[in-house]
Amino acid sequence: MPKPSKREDLLASALETFHTRGFHGTGIKEIADAAGAPKGSFYNHFSSKEECAIEALRLYGAERRLDMLADPTSPPLERVRRHFEFLRDEIVDRDFTRGCMFGNFATDVIDHSEDIRAVVADSLRTWHSAIAAALTEARRDGAVQADLDPDVTACFLLNAWEGTLIEARATKSDAAFDTFFRMAFGAVLR
């Protein structure tokens, strides 16, 4: 009887370890140990740490709940707000010890790996598009100003969010989130 594949265990371990310790702070042995696998089995599933990181980034993206932004059962601005509240709650629940893995990799790795840079950029574009689609609906429904540019606003929200995460982690406080929500939903999207 063949042994079960450890790929999913290794990938889950990689996501957790990369998100906690960053790309440069994570070793292949740490990923394998956390997965309960011998180090050699890592190379049965991934050709390199970089390839594993790319797969971990894709898995992270799938867990960002972008589906919330397209849920037709609630108004578009409510969806956008709930999406960011979900992300905020995730950070607060982890005691401000992690930021957005896309942002973390963007500041730590993309200058050294074109493949990781491309995955981060594509992930941010996908996220941006999901927010812009919800904002387009909000504009069509009259929930925001008629001259609001959904693409520019989605870009602004993502950039503001990433900055918010930096401050929240640095201060170990949710005050930055209060500012984000007040400005995003009380000024930009009113």
- The radius of gyration is 18 Å
CATH topology term of the largest domain: Tetracycline Repressor, domain 2
Using the 3D structure, state the CATH architecture of the largest domain. Answer: Orthogonal Bundle
Approximate shape: elongated
Order of helices and strands: HHHHHHHHH
Number of DSSP E strands = 0
Helix content: over 70%
User: Any idea of the CATH class of the largest domain?
Assistant: Mainly Alpha
Mean of residue pLDDT? Answer: 94
What do we call the CATH homologous superfamily of the largest domain?
Tetracycline Repressor, domain 2
Low-confidence runs: none
Note down, in words, how this protein is organized:
70% of the residues lie in helices and 0% in strands. The protein is an all-alpha fold and 190 residues long. It has 2 domains: 7-58, Homeodomain-like (Arc Repressor Mutant, subunit A, Orthogonal Bundle); 64-188, Tetracycline Repressor, domain 2 (Orthogonal Bundle), CATH 1.10.357.10.
